[in-house]
Each structure stands twice: as structure tokens, then as C-alpha cells.
Amino acid sequence: MRDDGHLVSLALKDPAQYGKLIERHWQTLIGLAFQKLGNVVDAEETVQRGFVQAYKSLPSLREQNRFLPWIARIVSRLAGEELIRRKRSGTLSLQEEITETAAPALTEKDQRMLAAVAELPDPYRITMTLRFQENLTGIEIARLLGEPAGTIRSRITRGIRLLRDTLEHEVRSG
To answer: What is the CATH number of domain 102-174?
Structure first.
């Protein structure tokens, strides 16, 4: 399996090679965008726009082996812009989007968990999504995001605590 740096080098010479980067990172980026947007269609559109922007800026990527953290930041920024657009246009809230777009097979408990994860601050939401949805280890997440492993461990621990507190509060008040 070739590393991202090698694939970026190939894509700079042969645009057809960019597809390999898309295939490699599509699902991870969809998961990140979905956690922020709560809607699969918007997540897919955001990731597509992210890949287009990244391709146009590919020659400016200095650390080619850090393609995924770079494009993850692009996608995260685009998702944030989409949330701002939603607020301005008065579309559904994130909670309503999740409830309406969640697969019918999801239990109410699963829907509450997805909604709670979606409400976490970005660093925790991204880390928790990569850990529990994408099944990456703390070290893999650290490498992917370019963060120290200790920071990732702390985010996972704190993210679990935040989720537990949120869900316990819902049970007590609901």
C-alpha cells in the first residue's frame, strides 16, 4: 500500500492518480462531515467540494505525506460554512436534521447518541468519530490529525465523559 505522499506525487504528474486518494479517504471524510452536518447528502456534497478544492491546491501542499489532515481541515471548514449558511437561511437545526435523516433501523438510543456526538466541540467530535465510527486507534488518529498521542487520549477520555454527562442529563430531565 502506497503512502499518501507517494500518491500526491503521482497525482501531481497524472491527475488520474488523484482518484486513489479519493478512494482511500472518502469514507473517513464522510464520517467527519456527517458528524458536523448530521445529513449524509450534505456530508457527501461537502466532501466532494473538499476534494475539488484540495486538488486545485495540491501543488501548494508542502508536506505531501500529511494529505489527510490537510484535506480534513478543508472539509471541516466547508462543513462549518454550510452550518453558517443553514443558520442564515433558517433550515432545520442539527438535532432535527439528525432525527429526520437517521436510518429507521436506528433505535431511539442510537439517535440520541448520534445527536450527542454531533453536539460535541469539533476536536472531540472528530476524535470520537474516528475512534468509534472509523475504529481507528489513538495512535492512528494522532498520526492522521498530526496531534500528539497524549492529546488524542485526553480527547477520547474527555469526549466519553462529555457524552456520558449529556446522556445522563437527558435521562434525568426527560
So the answer is: 1.10.10.10
